[in-house]
Design brief:
144 residues; 4 strands; alpha+beta; four-stranded antiparallel beta sheet; Alpha-Beta Plaits
Length: 144
């Protein structure tokens, strides 16, 4: 039987979680992202919005997650060599943690990057041999 965890008796406190992940791309794709030459638009700006939407919609994706009143979402990107890393920090005053929300934000941002640049990454067979989403994890989780 599947059921949500009962958090009714837990105390409302500040909860913070930060998740991180990476996407590897071809060097030429990274350069196009940096120069703002992607056909679909601003890759990092759009991916930031996608991350925020994913955080807010986590219970719609993961039905056993509670609806949490989110206080803030901060999304950060860093480009090093052929990798774009994303960090998503979520804060909420609530009875349960926000690590799933931060993970959802990072994952959605990385998927959006893939979607926006895939036309540059596709090989002659229609495959994506260079794109790898990896190292998605919770960097930190704080309570109180």
């Amino acid at each position: 039987m599947t059921e949500m965890v009962d958090i009714g008796s837990k105390e409302v406190v500040l909860r913070t979680a930060r998740a991180r992940g990476e996407i590897s791309l071809k060097k030429s794709t990274i350069e196009a992202v940096k120069k703002g030459e992607i056909k679909k638009g601003d890759v990092l700006g759009t991916s930031q919005t996608v991350a925020i939407l994913a955080v807010k919609n986590t219970p719609n994706l993961l039905p056993l997650c509670h609806n949490i009143p989110i206080d803030s979402v901060d999304v950060f990107f860093d480009i090093v060599d052929e990798t774009i890393s994303c960090e998503c920090e979520v804060k909420a005053h609530y009875k349960t943690g926000v690590e799933m929300e931060s993970l959802a934000g990072v994952t959605a941002a990385l998927l959006n990057i893939w979607d926006m640049v895939k036309y540059l990454e596709k090989d002659e067979g229609g495959q994506y041999p260079n794109i790898v989403i990896k190292n998605i994890w919770v960097v930190s989780k704080k309570k109180g």
